[in-house]
Design goal:
Arc Repressor Mutant, subunit A; three-stranded antiparallel beta sheet; 3 strands
Amino acid sequence: MLTKKQITEVKAGLGTNTAGFPLVFAALGDSRRFHIFRLLMKHHDICVTDVARVFGMSVSAASQQLRVLERVGLVLKTRMGQMVCYEINQENIIAKQLVALLKKSDK
């Protein structure tokens, strides 16, 4: 059984460095978004229309899925004229760690 001091220490450590994880896991909890993230790992700069064609969905639906991944910081959007393309956000530590973990699981 935990002492009062241990409970205080556990409570203090709960929120540190993990604030973004629940949002990321919620975003990747959808299998379609998870597969889109995996696709972006293999093809570093992919446009919304390509995502739509790969997964057999409308461009609008693909755009909505990518927007969720962008909101949680996993991907970055680049506009090239009328095309909108996405790539993994290499500046996001969670995205980098996920890529490393998923690459290990591919072996």
